[in-house]
Amino acid sequence: MRNGDFAVNNRFLRACRREPADRVPVWFMRQAGRYDPEYRQIRETYTLLDICREPELCARVTRMPVDKLGVDAAILFSDIMVPVGAMGMSFSLQENVGPVMEHPLRAEEDVASLRVFEPEEALPYVLATIRHLAKALPVPLIGFAGGPFTLASYMIEGGPSRDYVHTKTLMLARPDLWDRLMSKLSQAMARYLRAQIQAGASAVQIFDSWVGSLSVHAFRVRVKPHVQRMMADLADLRVPVIYFGVHTGELLADFADTGATVVGVDWRTPLDRARQRVGTSVALQGNLDPVSLFAPPEVLRREVETVLELGTQSPGYIFNLGHGVKPSTDLAQLQRVVEWVHAFDPANSPYPPSKEERA
Amino acid sequence: MRNGDFAVNNRFLRACRREPADRVPVWFMRQAGRYDPEYRQIRETYTLLDICREPELCARVTRMPVDKLGVDAAILFSDIMVPVGAMGMSFSLQENVGPVMEHPLRAEEDVASLRVFEPEEALPYVLATIRHLAKALPVPLIGFAGGPFTLASYMIEGGPSRDYVHTKTLMLARPDLWDRLMSKLSQAMARYLRAQIQAGASAVQIFDSWVGSLSVHAFRVRVKPHVQRMMADLADLRVPVIYFGVHTGELLADFADTGATVVGVDWRTPLDRARQRVGTSVALQGNLDPVSLFAPPEVLRREVETVLELGTQSPGYIFNLGHGVKPSTDLAQLQRVVEWVHAFDPANSPYPPSKEERA
């Protein structure tokens, strides 16, 4: 049994399972990050990867937003590139740029030499951080990994990209090689997520942030089967799995069909439309535009309430942003959002929780 | 009467009006550009803005893809920033970056000092180019302008942006100032497009490329009314107006509701879905992923045919990419696409042209 099931605050896990909860749960993608002065101070001494490698410090950073913002879930502080290193590809994380690979993956041999690593051997510090947190946190802990398309895009392009020319060209010109790469990535990430869950994560999120650059057809044929296999690989653990990317409005029905428990939605798709596309067998997570946090509080409040009203029209809803918190965000604005989400009365939504649940 | 109506090749204009045509018409966004060695050679001597300011050279560049690719429409060679200069804001076009403003627009006075210019006075060379082309081209000429959100985003951010923080913050925090800015931009661009049409453009496209960064609600309240006013301002001229942006899947129904004649679609939204959203009162244009042009010809052909099959399921369809041609594209691939589009038999689609039309 892991922490989340016994936690005082289990509304996040209840919402993932589309069960009624006392309040709408809320957490933020990148809720531990540069917007927080304490985090910025830590980063004066430690790089992001330094923090990931020091379980006590990493646990402290992971917990900071739980204490400061009052969010209903913690997410492991890490980076989707951490396991890419464990697969045998060197990279650096460059400030204001992102991951930059030492040698981009382009050839047959590059795929062949990727290691489907043993998490306990290759990334013991990640699992140590999770064990530490699972005992101490007052809320469930979310583990995570990058999605196969998104990881492949960094590996192949050599860094962030606007158009994914090399990635899509490999996919179109060498579908056999592409499938081998996707298989290795999805197998490695499923194994990594399994280890995180076994160490104490109560849920996991797959960040396939850039998969929305694909057409529906390309996603269905070249990515979805691999995501489905990841979901199937994790199914026996019976913890919620969230699948998320930006620009994915057209992919939402297929996202729901991967076996995901929760589908993350960016701010472009209103949540009532997202619900029509995903059906009623998954929960939804999202989708305030992160830039709304720069608006005056009274304007921000209206934006938050609009999202809440659309999100709570059907059971299974977790408030979040439509993408990560921006570094220049004011911490006080995030605090306000949590307050407003928790003050929102789901009883006024068409699907109120039962009386017992609210007592 | 303008050229396009008498042109030998009028299938582009017929498709805009949802009338049957002998073949599916095709043109490409950025069809005059760096993929063409002759263009690259011209750019060794002239900057992009130099070309725009020299009517004969500009007409030659505009015509190049018509002769080389066999496309069914020409689009004026220019840049959406050209009229921004005429409004009184200085900028430069930086290679591999895009437009960079000398002073970003941020304050009340900056909006107040923008000029709604007289096109014949401020940009005579653009209109001279169009007059020159309208007499000589064997296909209709498409004029264009930037959409109000996209122009505002360059003005406010000071250049290209990933997240439009300053633009959206101004919109949320100062809706009054935002509306004044939108009014000036849409008025100036409507006047500019009117002048282009009067000089001989047979159709115009409004490139609101980045408007898909907005939520549906923000688009409806803060941008759509201004686009509607632009469309209304141009309605008496009775030429097709195309409205286009990327990441706009969620906005397509609203796009159709602006009064546009044709709605441009990026590659993320399958054209049959796009049709469901826009209804039957507009034509559709798009939507091959520009990166597909890097695939081997036999793979590219399948991609082209998939787009054609979805696009021709209802009347009023123009083949195009989902965004501009990338500079590293092979010219021969574009030639192949035009050939395949023209070889496609719309008679096999559920809405074949009438016999008379095909004779």
Secondary structure elements and their pairing?
The structure is a homodimer of 359-residue chains.
Chain A: H1 3-6, H2 11-16, H3 37-45, H4 48-53, H5 55-69, E1 74-75, H6 82-86, E2 91-94, E3 98-101, H7 108-112, H8 119-122, H9 124-136, E4 141-146, H10 148-157, H11 165-173, H12 175-199, E5 203-207, H13 216-222, H14 224-234, E6 241-244, H15 252-256, E7 262-264, H16 271-278, E8 283-288, H17 297-311, E9 317-321, H18 331-343, H19 355-358
Parallel strand pairs in A: 1-4, 4-5, 5-6, 6-7, 7-8, 8-9
Antiparallel strand pairs in A: 2-3
Helix pairs in contact in A: 5-9, 10-12, 11-12, 12-14, 17-18
What can you see in these coordinates?
2 copies of one chain form a homodimer. Chain A has about 350 residues and is an alpha/beta fold. The first copy, chain A, has 19 helices and 9 strands. The first copy, chain A, has helices at about 5, 10-15, 35-45, 50-55, 55-70, 80-85, 110, 120, 125-135, 150-155, 165-175, 175-200, 215-220, 225-235, 250-255, 270-280, 295-310, 330-345, 355-359; strands at about 75, 90-95, 100, 140-145, 205, 240-245, 260-265, 285-290, 315-320. Chain A has a 7-stranded parallel β-sheet with strand order 1-4-5-6-7-8-9. The first copy, chain A, has a two-stranded antiparallel sheet with strand order 2-3. In chain A, helix 17 (about 295-310) links the parallel strand 8 (about 285-290) and strand 9 (about 315-320). The two termini of chain A are about 25 Å apart. Residues about 1-5 and about 350-359 of chain A have low confidence and may be disordered. The interface between A and B is medium-sized, with 33 and 33 residues. Chains A, B: Pfam families: URO-D (PF01208). Chains A, B: Its EC number is 4.1.1.37. Chains A, B: It catalyses: uroporphyrinogen III + 4 H(+) = coproporphyrinogen III + 4 CO2. Chains A, B: Pathway: Porphyrin-containing compound metabolism; protoporphyrin-IX biosynthesis; coproporphyrinogen-III from 5-aminolevulinate: step 4/4.
